[in-house]
Specification:
The longest helix is centred in the N-terminal third of the chain and has 19 residues. The chain is globular. It is of the alpha+beta class. A 4-stranded antiparallel sheet has the order 1-2-4-3, with helices on both faces. Helix 3 packs parallel to helix 5. About 50% of the residues lie in helices and about 10% in strands. The N and C termini lie far apart (about 60 Å). The chain contains 12 helices and 4 strands, in the order H-H-H-H-H-H-H-H-H-E-H-E-H-E-H-E.
Length: about 325
């Protein structure tokens, strides 16, 4: 017993040193280089989907510019056609292939409407790939009218945001699974690098699964039993490529914030729980939670229904002058 206590103390001391921090960073890099994709190397279906999404989104962005260059993106589109053809042979024609076709169909239309001669090997190849006119609109651009936005943005967003607090005192009723699903469905509209949407939301509904994960997290003492459901937000490393090892945290953070705001909009209380723990704890959390090794844990979110009244930390915010720098 004494030896076990000593081991835990030594481990705690180690992870609070620079060496422990270095070990964590090396482990993260090891995972990144194991699961991330390279331009010409596909390690999995997930990586191939991420690459194709990244590639056709380049065309979408080009079409959304104020004055797109006629015939733009030839090299990138040829690569997109190469890889989509390989993907289609492996996995069949799915929603991703349809999105690529939609996008390239709009690309052809854009050039034709601007009097570009749609002929020659390059344009023939695109049209052969598209085939018959595709009906569903899953890729390309959509025209937004400013007047139509008025009704959707006519809310007191400042008041809404300022009314959200981290809640640590929930009532005892069950949070409906359908409400959680709705919150995630809303949150998925968060921005992500090249629209790759790498995030995952693991929802735990049973105390026997929730409590061991909260124990690993370690920052929920005093309100552990109050947490009704637990979300673990992750990002799939397979969706990222060279020089993007930090992007998985950015995308995961953007999605997490959307989740919290979506829950708030549905009247569900939430408390963000950081996962700043050693990689050994992360591995254990993944094992307990059934989370694949190729996913990086971004944060946990404890949720519950709101009481009629409850206390929250004031959490004073910095002055605007301490944050904004006008250049």
């Amino acid at each position: 017993m004494l030896q076990r206590i000593k081991s835990k103390i030594h481990a705690l001391v180690f992870w609070q040193t620079s060496l422990g921090d270095w070990a964590n960073k090396m482990y993260d890099l090891k995972l990144f280089y194991k699961y991330s994709f390279k331009k010409n190397i596909s390690r999995s279906k997930e990586s191939e989907m991420a690459f194709l999404t990244k590639q056709y989104h380049i065309v979408e962005k080009g079409l959304a510019l104020p004055n797109p260059r006629l015939g733009f993106g030839k090299e990138k589109i040829n690569l997109l056609l190469d890889r989509t053809t390989i993907y289609k042979e492996k996995y069949g024609e799915d929603i991703l292939v349809l999105s690529v076709k939609n996008c390239l169909s709009e690309y052809i239309t854009f050039n034709r409407q601007n009097n570009v001669a749609i002929k020659g090997a390059y344009f023939d190849r695109i049209q052969d790939f598209i085939g018959e006119e595709v009906q569903q609109k899953k890729g390309g651009t959509v025209l937004i009218h400013k007047n139509e936005l008025k009704s959707t943005i006519d809310i007191d967003f400042e008041k809404f945001v300022k009314s959200r607090f981290s809640v640590r005192d929930f009532d005892t009723t069950e949070v409906a699974i359908d409400t959680i699903k709705k919150a995630i469905d809303i949150a998925k509209y968060a921005p992500s690098v090249c629209n790759r949407q790498s995030w995952k939301a693991h929802a735990y509904v049973d105390k026997k699964d929730i409590l061991p994960l909260l124990k690993i997290q370690g920052g929920n003492n005093g309100f552990t039993e109050s947490i009704n459901k637990l979300l673990v937000i992750t990002t799939d490393i397979k969706a990222f490529t060279t020089l993007e090892s930090n992007q998985l945290y950015i995308d995961g953070g953007l999605f997490s914030m959307n989740v919290v705001l979506s829950l708030h909009s549905l009247g569900i209380g939430a408390c963000c729980l950081n996962t700043c723990f050693p990689f050994t704890s992360e591995k254990k959390a993944k094992e307990i939670g059934g989370i694949p090794m190729n996913e990086k844990i971004i944060m946990m979110i404890g949720i519950g229904n709101l009481k009629d009244s409850y206390k929250v930390a004031i959490s004073r915010k910095k002055e605007l002058s301490d944050i904004i720098k006008i250049h």
